[in-house]
Write the structure tokens for this entry.
Amino acid sequence: MLFKSLLEYTGIEPGRIFFSWVSSSEASRFAQLASEVTSKVKELGPNNNYIKQSPIKAAC
């Protein structure tokens, strides 16, 4: 719950992050999860809540 709150605070929708335990012997399950998560993130579209910061220029 704390991580979810942190994501929302930073402007990242919780649906963009997914955690699951997959054994190395479960290649088909991994592929299925990756496909499902990719589809869900594509449905969300671009993250308009996130504002890209310009890189900090080094002082000369």
In short: Residues 2-44 form one domain. The radius of gyration is 16 Å.
